[in-house]
Structure formats: C-alpha cells, structure tokens
Amino acid sequence: MAHTQKIPPAIPYLIRGYPWQHLGSLGFLFFWLIAVTGFYLFAVLDTSVEGVYSSIVWLTREQWYLGGIIRSLHRYAADAFILVTLLHLTREFLLGRYGGFRRFSWLTGVPLLWFAYISGIGGFWLNWDQLGQFSAVASAEWLDWLPIFATPFTRNFLTAAAVSDRLFTLLVFVHIGVPLLLIFGLWFHVQRINRAEVFPPRALGIGALAALLTLALALPVVSQGKADLAVVPGPLALDWFYLFLHPLMYVSSPASVWTLIAGITLFLLLLPFLPSSRRVPSIAVVNPDNCNGCRRCFDDCPYAAIVMVPHPQATIVKPGLQLAKVMPDLCASCGICAGSCPSSTPFRNVPALVTGIDMPQLPVEALRQALKLRLAALEGDTRIVVFGCDHGASVEALSGADVAGFSLICTGMLPPSFVDYAWREGAAGVLVTGCRDSACAFRLGSRWSEQRLLGLREPRLRFNAARERLCIAWADPGEEPELLATLTDFRRRLATFAPPPVLQANRLDGISPNTPETNAGTGGTADGQI
Amino acid sequence: MVKSKPLAWLAQGLLYALFALIIGTFSSWPKYRHLAPEQALIKLSFTHHGKRVEDCRQRTPEELAKLPPNMRAPMQCQRERSPVTVEVDLDGQRIYRHVAAPSGLSKDGASTVYQRLEMLAGEHRLAVRLKDSAGGSDFDYRREETVTLKPGQVLVIDFNAEKGGITLL
Questions:
Q1: Do A8 and B1 touch (CB under 8 A)?
Q2: Do B127 and B146 fall within a single domain?
Q3: Domain architecture of chain A: domains with CATH
C-alpha cells in the first residue's frame, strides 16, 4: 500500500489558501441556505400592505425560536453570499483568471452580480419597515434617472395611498423570480468546469453555517419600525453589503451611481478581451496514430476542453472509433490529459515515446529521458525521485545527492507508470507531491493523481507494484519545510527496505548504476531540462 | 505548521468568528441618517398631460368626405402637447423651476416631474405655480399656503386637475 502522508495544514495556508479556494462553492452553499429559509418566510408572509410588516414582526417576536432564526439566517446568508461572491470575483481578478479558457466562466459570472443585487435589495422592501421604505424610495429615485418609465416609478411610493397590495405581490414575484434566473446563470457559470465544486468541503461548510447560526442567535435581525411614507426614516441600521448604493447616490447623484455601476459592469465584460502580457501556453496536442479513443482524457479534463470526434482511421473493423479533440480556447495547458493517456507509459518499446495526447512544452518523452539521466546521476541506496508541480511546494529545493526532483506543469500530468518506471530505473522510492486537492491550480490534478496511484482510477499504477516505496504528500507553496520533513521520514523508511532489484543486480555484476551503460536500450537521449 | 489539533481548531474558530463579525457588523453598522434631524422634505411630483399645442377644429364636410367612412371623426386634433412648467417658491424665494417636456416620440404623452426639496422644518410660506398651456405667459394653476413642517416630515405636492389642480398631501 502506498504511504499517503497527510501534511497538517499550516496557519498561513488556513488563512491564505483554504477558505479562499472555496469562495465559489461557499456562495452556492449560502444561496441554498437563502432558498431554504426563503421557502418558510414565503409561507408566512402576508403580501397585503397592512399585513406584510406585521407578519414579519410576528415571526420575529412571537416565533423567535424558529421563524426569527430563519429570518436572521435568511438575511445573514444573503450578506454572506454577496461577501463571498465579491471576494471570489476579486480573487479571480487578482489571479488573472478571466481570459483564455476562463473567459466563458468570467463573462457568465458578471450578470450574476446584477441578479444577486436585484433580488437582495428587493428582499429589504418586502419587510416594509422603515429600512424597506428607504430602500424602495431610493431605488425608485435611482431607476427614474433612466428614461424608461412613462410614469415615474417613485410615484408608487409617494404616499401611503399609492402603495397597493399588488405591489407586494409583484415584489414577491421578483424576489423569487430573479433568484431563479440566478440559478440558471450559475448553471451557465459552471458549464465549462468539469465536476464543478458546488458544495464546499464538509468542515468548511459546517463551520460557515455554524458561524451564521451563532450570529442569528446572538444578533437576531429585527424590523425597524413600520414604513410611513409621510415621514423620512430616522437613523437606519443599514445593510451595507446591499444598500451602500443608496447613501452613495445621495452624496453624489443618480447619474454618478449609474455611471459607476455601468462602468464597472463594462470593465468586467471587456476585461477578458483586453490585450494581455501573459504568455499563452501551448495547448495539448493529439496524435491520432496513438489515440485509441479511450475517453480518459475526456473524462479527466478539468475544464471540459476535450471533445470526442470520429477517428479518421475508423474502419469497418473498428467502427465507431473515436479521437480526442482539444478545444484550443478551453485548454488550460495543465497536461492532466497526458497523464490520463494509456499510451503515455514509458515502458513502451519505441525509440521515441509519442503519446496519444501530450504537452508540447513538456512531452512525456522528455520526462522519460530526464528521469533516466537524473536517476543515473544519483548516489546511495535511498535514491528518491520526487514528482511535484509548478504550483505546489517547490521540489527543486529537495534535489540532492540521492534525490531528483521533477516539477511538472501539474502533478496530474504524471502517468502512474512513471512511478513504476522510476523504480525499475533504480529509484528506491518515489515521492509524489503537488498542490493540495482543495488548492490545486488546475482543480483536479492532485485528486486524479492520487486516485490513479492508489489504483482507484484509470490509468492505474500496476496492481502488484511496490507501493510501500511510494509516498504521496500534498503541500502548497510555503510548506517546503514540511515536505522536506516528509522526505526525510520517507528516506528513513526506505533505508529499512532491501535495495531496489536493479541496484542489487548491478552490485552482483559489479556495475555502477550511475553509468550510462546501465540505461542503454531503453530510449534515446534527453533533449530538454526539467 | 499547525502541529497540535487545538491550535488548528483555535485558528479555524478565529477565522469563523471573524467571518461572523464582518457579516454582523456591516449588516447593521454604521447607522445611516438620510435627512438631518432638523430638516423636512418636500416631494414635488406629478404626471400630467399638457394642453394641446393647437386647439381641435371642426372638419369641413369636404374633408370628411375624403376620409374613409370609418375614420370620419368630426374633430381634428393635433397630437402634440404643450410642455408643463412648474415653479415653487418658499418664503418668497424661488427654489425650483422646471419645464417638463411631453413624453413620447410625437410629444403627445404626459409631462412628469419628480423633485426632492430638502429644507429646514418649521413654518414656511409655500407657493406653487403650474402652466400647462402653450399660449400666454400666465400660469394656469396656482396655490399658495402656509405650511408647518415637522422634522422628518414629507410634504407631497401633486397635481390632479379633477381635484382642483395643485394638491398638498
């Protein structure tokens, strides 16, 4: 059995990494909490002008133990939803995740902000307390700046007599209808994300819900006096997550706020099309002669960038043979497809290893050659090969007299048979690392790698492979000391095992395992440095 | 690196507490006061069709004969409406004047006005004038009244021709 070393998360990781990588799925969680609590509130809401306020107040006061908590959860979940949504947007922006293969997700995310704010602000009106009154009047005044209403929308809130029961029925319709649009938009938003994470990790989800429940109990949401259109509400406990636009409008003007909002929206929509200085990485390349249409790359691609098309070599003998086709605009250049390809095995007896799907910047043949060369240069009985990724804890620092570190684009691009191959070429052990599953730069790379190495996913590491010589330890940047400790521990364990068969055979023959002769006949020469 | 479980739990607990603190704080704080305590608000708002720019006239029998039988309306009226002019004086000072154009591509829709006028609470002499016809220089409707506004009170100035014109609500 492979040794899976769980490196405990460091505090910097908890602060910097863990929650931030799940902002989107936290948003989903809060959305569903809003929906579930909203069902109950809708059931008890009286949509008449006279009844809407009193029904909510009754719920808050008389049924505080259920309805009151549900109301508070509804509001706080809405606040949390907008908070994590804005943080999610900011994080993706700062990481430059808006262009290329992420353009679709970015563009489909922009309207969701509008939907979130429309449904959120409308929710305040439904309480029809002084805060709802203020928000309704301010929103109406803002909307009236646009020449879209024949009669000013504000006239609906001019006097108490102007407010009708039907208005609240309409508001309920909007408050339910727009979130339905939001769900539809969210579905689009994750369309290009294979196996999108729509729920956060259990611990994070439970923790976030517990935090909101505690808040609901400690600081229950209450109404702020019945709406009275004959009076301007006094000091209001404003919900700044949603209603900040109103004070902003009163200190500037409706035109300024429209300009700001329209400008931000336009900027977000144009951002993916602006010229970028980022180098466009090479996308995966399919070699039809080595692709048998097995669909593993299709299944494993984190961004649904691979489609299956009829194979040009389909014959009567092999009808329906398929070929993987890479959609250039969607390819993230992670190489996970190369790691999933069964023809990526380094044991193939060919002069130059050409696989069904490969990364031009780091072909599996170059990896095989580099592995052989680096292994040949190692010394000692505990020679260790470390496969890591460019986005996780650095493996370069681990390299030494008996350690060869390989930093891949993503650990998911490592064909599992390379582990076996390393053992056969003289490695006493193989350490596989990379970003943590929850923090994987390409979402699924470390997860697929671990499953492949543990024999849970195709292509699997050989069933009877010496898994005790395999160590899997995920570590993020900044966790290099922990990874080094894991390596040291792994080396100590390897020292208790018998030397690998290839070393034993070389000793019997009096051949140094470091000489090129021992590796003759297994391939060409390396032409690249990794 | 978090070696001990309690420390990890504590760190996570602090993060969740911070999360709840942020939500709880900005969902109700800082308080916002829309209008200064000593102020009141007048909302001037109406939606009103100005009079036609040209008066309707009787069609001659010859003109009627030229029209299809189903379109022989005896009166011919131009669609365009006059803009509506409104002025508000407070304590003898003009604080607002606006000419509201008729809506619609043919300028045949209602003229609409919505304006907030913030002022100190107390007794004021309020004068409102409205003109909805094209000809002449005099206003068609006038209302002058002494009003006492409480702090935070909203006084609505509307227009309803059927109720005598300018109304204070």
A1: yes
A2: yes
A3: 13-228+235-241 (1.20.810.10), 281-332 (no CATH), 344-521 (no CATH)
Q: Classify residue B159 as left (phi > 0), alpha (psi -120 to 50) or beta.
A: beta
Does B89 share its domain with B27?
no
Residues B48, B5 share a domain: no
Query: Is residue A265 very low, low, confident or very high in pLDDT (cuts 50, 70, 90)?
Result: very high
- Asked if residue B161 and residue B90 are part of one domain, the reply reads yes
The verdict on residue B71 lying in a domain is no
Say yes or no for a CB contact (<8 Å) between B27 and A76: yes
Q: What share of chain A in percent tops pLDDT 90?
A: 73
Contacts of residue B116, defined as CB under 8 A and 6 or more positions apart, other chains included, come to A141, B41, B42, B43
- Shared domain for B48 and B26, answered yes or no, is no
A353 dihedral zone (left: phi>0; alpha: psi -120 to 50; beta): beta
> What are A433-464's pLDDT values in tens digits?
999 887 788 989 999 999 999 999 999 998 88
What residue numbers bound the domain in which B98 lies?
39-52+81-168
pTM for the whole structure: 0.85
Q: Given CA atoms A106, A108, A111, A117 in this order, what sign does their dihedral have?
A: negative
Distances, alpha carbon A301 to alpha carbons A28, A265, A336, A338, A433, in Å: 23, 31, 7, 10, 20
B47 and B121 co-located in one domain: yes
User: Which of A6, A11, A87, A219 should one mutate to test binding to chain B, selecting the residue with the greatest count of B CBs within 10 A?
Assistant: A11
Record the tokens describing residue B156, joined without a space. 């609505």
Q: Cα dist. A243→A416, A478, B136 in Å? A: 53, 39, 47
Q: Do B152 and A232 touch (CB under 8 A)?
A: yes
Alpha-carbon span A477 to B105, nearest angstrom: 63
ipTM, two decimals, is 0.91
Per-residue model confidence (pLDDT) at position A420: 94
Within 8 A by CB and 6+ apart from A146, the residues are A258
Angle, helices A69-94 vs B5-26, to 10°: value is 100
Q: Report whether the peptide linkage leading into residue A459 is cis, meaning its omega lies within 30 degrees of zero.
A: yes
**Mutation target vs A (from B34, B45, B148, B160; most A CBs, 10 A cutoff):** B34
* Residue B101 shares a structural domain with residue B130: yes
| Residue B26 shares a structural domain with residue B43 | no
Nearest residue, CB atoms, B154 vs list A155, A229, A246: A229
Q: How many distinct structural domains can be found in chain B?
A: 2
| Residue B74, in any domain of the structure | no
- Location of structure tokens 């100190």: B120
Residue of B17, B112, B169 with shortest CB distance to A152: B112
Query: What's the pLDDT score for residue A526?
Result: 32
Q: How confident is the model at residue B114 (pLDDT cuts 50, 70, 90)?
A: very high
| Domain annotation covers residue B66 | no
